[in-house]
UniProtKB/TrEMBL annotation:
SMART domains xref list: HTH_LUXR, REC
Modified residue annotations for 4-aspartylphosphate: 55
Keywords of the record: DNA-binding, Phosphoprotein, Transcription, Transcription regulation
Organism: Mobilicoccus caccae
Annotated Gene3D superfamilies: 3.40.50.2300
HTH luxR-type domain sequence ranges: 144-209
GO molecular function, a single term: DNA binding
Ranges where the Response regulatory domain occurs: 4-117
InterPro entries noted in UniProt: CheY-like_superfamily, NreC/VraR/RcsB-like_REC, Sig_transdc_resp-reg_C-effctor, Sig_transdc_resp-reg_receiver, Tscrpt_reg_LuxR_C, WalR-like
Designated name of the protein: DNA-binding response regulator
Superkingdom of the organism of origin: Bacteria
CDD domains referenced in this protein's UniProt entry, alphabetically: LuxR_C_like, REC_NarL-like
Pfam families per the UniProt record, alphabetical: GerE, Response_reg
Length: 212
């Protein structure tokens, strides 16, 4: 079954370009587009795409507001010219699962769509480590000093790779395990570290000095 994608950007050339890139992939189908935030909310609500690609600066409603309204039902990847730290943090807090800059290239765009459809997060490489360091410094849960000791050696390996910005598929490849095994490890890590998601896993791992 194809991944159904909705594109929202106020520039027609961007919408057309993204559409051509994605239409060339056998497993991706572009089902709709919008030039402003209000039309994006209407189209996403009506078409129920698997993934929405949203620009930040759009008329009527910006992409951050749209993200906050639709992220509960559609996986959102913010695609923008602006890789500003505040935009990244706000988009992720609003529920986006990905954030890439427009000059990242076609391959990363396609990878971000596939990652979002799988439930993974993908962020432009140049933004990933700064994001994790900010989260580690500012928003990691308050935990005891021996928290990482709760993890097995393999779970610690997975946590370290999450902290380095790896997707589930990349972790599976590096550790030579099945993708389902990685997801099982992540569920156990979240339970043992008493955190809610992979960003908090990364934050704990950074704060405990387990990542070089």
């Amino acid at each position: 079954m194809s991944i159904r994608v909705f594109i929202a950007d106020d520039q027609e050339m961007v919408r057309v370009g993204f559409g051509l890139i994605l239409a060339a992939e056998k497993d991706i189908e572009v089902v709709g587009e919008a030039a402003d935030g209000a039309a994006a909310i209407e189209g996403i609500g009506r078409l129920r795409p698997d993934v929405a690609l949203l620009d930040i600066r759009m008329p009527l409603l910006d992409g951050l507001e749209v993200t906050a309204r639709v992220a509960g039902s559609t996986a959102v990847v913010v695609v923008t010219t602006f890789g500003d730290d505040t935009y990244v943090d706000t988009a992720l807090a609003a529920g986006a699962v990905g954030f890439i800059v427009k000059d990242s290239g076609p391959q990363l765009l396609v990878s971000a769509v596939r990652a979002a459809a799988r439930g993974d997060a993908l962020i432009s490489p140049e933004l990933t480590l700064p994001l994790l360091r900010r989260r580690a410094a500012a928003s990691a849960p308050v935990v005891g000093p021996d928290l990482l000791a709760r993890l097995s050696d393999r779970e610690l390996d997975v946590a370290r790779l999450v902290a380095q910005g790896r997707t589930n598929a990349e972790i599976a490849g590096e550790l030579y395990v099945a993708l389902s095994t990685v997801k099982t490890h992540l569920a156990r890590i979240q339970q043992r570290l008493e955190v809610r998601n992979r960003v908090e896993i990364a934050a704990v791992t950074w704060r405990r000095g387990a990542v070089e």
